[in-house]
Each structure stands twice: as C-alpha cells, then as structure tokens.
C-alpha cells in the first residue's frame, strides 16, 4: 500500500471540490447534483476529489436495490485525482469515503456509479473497490461536436437549450426542431454532431449487506465477452492489460490503470485520444 496509507480523506466545501473537478476530471465539468464532496490530501495538499449526490433520475435506479427508500442511496457522480498520489490511492480513497458515509449518514444503504468507456475506461477502480457490475450498456449518449468538444446529449433532457449549443443553433431553431420532443438525436443530427460508440458500465456497492441487488450481477469476465473493455475510448481487453511483454500475467497491471483516466485533463484527454 505504501504512502497511500498516509492519505487523509475529509469533507470539503463544494467550491473547492468543483474547482478541482473542472481542472482534473476528464470531462472538465462538475455534476450539478453533487452535494457531498470528499477531498483526498497527501502532504497537506489536495490531490483528489470524490463527489456524491443524487442520480439525474432517481426514479429509474431506485429499484436496483431493495429495500431502498428515496433517501437511502447516493451516486458517486464525479471522481478525479492528479498525478501526485501513489499506486492504490484511488481505491483506498473510495473505501475511506464510504466508511465516512456509513459512520455519519447511516441511512445510506448503497452507492451507484457509472463508468464511461467512451471518454475514460471500463471501471477498473470500481472493481478494485468491491463494487458489483450490474450492466454493460452500448447505448451511450456521447457526441462529438463539430468543434471536437465531446458532450453528453442527455443534458438536453434536463436543461434544454444549453451553452454548448450556442455556436451551432439558435434557441428559436432549437425549439422548432425539437417541437416538444425529448429526443436529442434531432438536434445532434442538425448541428452535425457525431455519435461516439462505446459502452457505459453500471456498478453498485452495498453498504448495507442485508440489501439485495434486484438485477443480475455480472461476472467481470463479461466485459471481455461483450467486447466492452475500453481505456480512454480505445478497445482493450482486461486480459491484455494484465499481460506483460514477456507474456506473463502481471497481477499489478490492473492497479496501475486504476485511475489514469481520472488524472487526464480535458486538453490532454483530447490529445491522447487524438479527437
């Protein structure tokens, strides 16, 4: 574990957390529904943030775990770290944050999170942290705009006409094309956006072990079976990540990849993916 044991995890103000997320998360954006923020400190400096809050549409996910009331779950909305932290830091920080939630908000029974293979990876950190894999979805909503900016079209359903649309379409034209529909495809097609193919993986962590996950729990091998292994938008199997140049299986390879994508800023992420 090394110096990862020295990391201090504690609640921090949203302003500090959001500034860090904007700088270090691959999306460069905060999740407006995040309400609980943990800072990860080493050598008296902030090097990581975990932000928890409600899902965008809680009604669609609440039944994934039973029993579960409206206020008994959280989503890990954002997670970002810089390059200062040592190996194993990410999974350790998640573990500590969950322990703090269990101690100080004992009504929270489970945690939901999603991994975006198009923009980041297939959830190495979650698997290392004891989360269950419960869905591999190939219907992501990531689009590349004509200016190469990558956005999630689902934001149109929550906010309607949004700032990143301004260079491409007027509000009047937006309303005319949408015509009361909640579909984002009409708008994205009109502005010439390109759909990005990949997978979104859903993970669940049970704080209350008496609760039951109501959907099938998938073995991690299913990721390779479905061709959903991805790192920074590029296909790569879990097995390939574990094999060294000599052909031997490297048990530490997965840990090395734990959070490389979370340390990528929007600029470097685009550079590395050549988008």
Using only CA atoms, what is the Rg? 19 Å
CATH class of the largest domain: Alpha Beta
Q: What string gives the helices and strands in order?
A: EHEEEEHEHEEEHHHEEEHEEHHH
Count of alpha/pi helices: 10
Whole-number count of domains? 2
Task: Based on the coordinates given, report the CATH architecture of the largest domain.
Answer: 3-Layer(aba) Sandwich
The biggest beta sheet, please? 7 strands, mixed
State the CATH superfamily name of the largest domain: Gcn5-related N-acetyltransferase (GNAT)
Distance from N terminus to C terminus (CA atoms, Å) equals: 35 Å
Spatial strand sequence of the major β-sheet = 1-2-3-5-6-11-7
Which oligomeric state applies? single chain
Q: What proportion of the residues form beta strands (DSSP E)?
A: 15-25%
The CATH topology label of the largest domain is: Aminopeptidase
